[in-house]
Amino acid sequence: MKIVTAAEMREIDRVTTEKYGVPSLTLMENAGDAVARFALQQYPEAKRITVVCGKGNNGGDGFVAARKFHEAGRDVRIALLAEPDDVKGDARENLKRLHLAPTIANSTAKLDANSRLFSEADLLIDAIFGTGFRPPLPELANYAIELIGQSTAPVISVDIPSGADADSFNVDQPGSCRSSAIVTFTVLKPGIIFTPLTRGSIVIARIGSPDEAITSKLGLQWNVVPPILRRPRNLNSNKGLYGHALIIGGSVGKSGAPTMASAAALRIGAGLVTCAVPKSIQSIVAGAIPELMTEPLDENARGAISEGALDEAEAALLLQRKNVVAVGPGLGRDAETVRVVRGFVTRCPHPLVLDADALNAFEKENTFLDGSRRPLVLTPHPGEMARLIGSTVKDIEANRIEVARNFAREHHVILVLKGWRTLIADSSGNIWVNTTGNPGLAKGGSGDALTGMIAGLIAQHPDRIVDAVRAGVYLHGLAGDAALSIQTEETMLASDVIAALPSAFRLVRKPADEFTWIQYGEQRG
């Protein structure tokens, strides 16, 4: 699903009407109806509903929703932040259709006099400004947003929380309306997906625009559930059908990282997984997972992988009957290991996933990272990305999309730039924005689990590498969200995320409902 700017969304609406013959009044009817259906579905106990409307099309969507609430038997109040004569176009038509008298609150004094509309509501609908808004907020709208903020009722935002810039990529965007959930229309906009405007649900309601009308120059797509996650396994299956992943990592004191990566690869469905670690920690890794095969690697006096551990002869033996290799978890930054990793990555003919210290091994030497000979997947966090390109974390965070796209293109790799809204960039310049996950994943071991999940999915889908990477990122975040049903963001561990993979698989295989959802944190029932 494409991500579009506010201007592109207006063009989509125009094309939908002029080329495809869907009246703009129908689009508004469908939008308001979607808001009402979502609200009634999610808040069935809400009897008193206040809809706060501006004079534009966002307010028009609110008028439609108010009419639907009234038809459903709810006690509906409408606060109109304008004179009725100031409402124009389709919004005016829907104001006429209301058969309800709105409270005219076209000044802060009138808003203040009618503050009970906010304080006594069981549910508030924010329909003041939509995606066409640009800061700053007018005084009247700002006061209405303050009153919404003072209320204890849940708030559903129509299209986008009022006061938010739909085109903003700023994670710290200030000043928008408090929101418990967002119902946006047709497709996502940058400000909705990159800015944490709500800790609740974001739903995308299709209101009538055909796919052919949806175009964007941003080159960004929402990382929806890749189809490979929905496919059932063949009844006549055996482990050989699902690949053999090799995980290379570990050093003295860091046996947990390769162990978690291996567990994740197994749990996500790889037929076989072998973990190659320094021989002094092999027994620790082998004892942690009965289903895991292990290989001992020669080590130096410091307990890190030694120069001869992955020379051509040893590497050839390790790679036999494997179809994907992940390198990095727990390797450490020993100088000898760095040389080993560089040589192995350069020679390895198999699809490779590089994380952690396998990435740090290429600090200031990223020209050796070339995915043109075989698929190469890199999974850096901003610090690792900064080291790879000789930049700073601040610069990476300020230019995440450009950094990811340019590096993936130049090096012919698939780049997973982790963080808030993890990005997946391929060598053609496509970027998918992932929306699963929560701050509980900000814990040691989380990246190791992701590495194992990606490797495990590539093992199963060697002909669909990009889809496998997208699926791994999606499932990793979704498992983190599912883990919140029994954990908190503070207590969640990487092992909890791996343990929650069964719940994540069940969630992606549930029948789709009428809305497309982005769900923060705990899953809806």
The CATH top-level class label of the largest domain: Alpha Beta
Instruction: Tell me the overall shape.
Output: elongated
**Total tally of structural domains:** 2
Query: What is the name of the CATH superfamily of the largest domain?
Result: Ribokinase
Radius of gyration from the CA trace?
26 Å
Structural class estimated from helices and strands: alpha/beta
Q: Name the helicity range.
A: 25-40%
Low-confidence stretches: 521-525
β-sheet strand percentage? 5-15%
Mean pLDDT: 95
Count of discrete alpha- or pi-helical segments spanning 4 or more residues: 20
Architecture per CATH nomenclature, i.e. the level-2 architecture of the largest domain: 3-Layer(aba) Sandwich
Largest sheet entry: 10 strands, mixed
Please provide the count of β strands.
18
**In the CATH scheme, what's the topology name of the largest domain?**
UDP-N-acetylmuramoyl-L-alanine:D-glutamate ligase
Order of adjacent strands in the largest pleated sheet:
8-17-16-15-14-13-12-9-10-11
Distance between the termini: 25 Å
Characterise the protein shown here:
- Helices cover 38% and strands 15% of the residues.
- It has 20 helices and 18 strands.
- The strands form 2 sheets. Strands 8-17-16-15-14-13-12-9-10-11 form a 10-stranded mixed sheet, sandwiched between helices.
Summarize the structure.
This protein has 525 residues and is of the alpha/beta class. The chain is 38% helix and 15% strand. It folds into 2 domains: 6-218, Rossmann fold (3-Layer(aba) Sandwich); 242-519, Ribokinase (UDP-N-acetylmuramoyl-L-alanine:D-glutamate ligase).
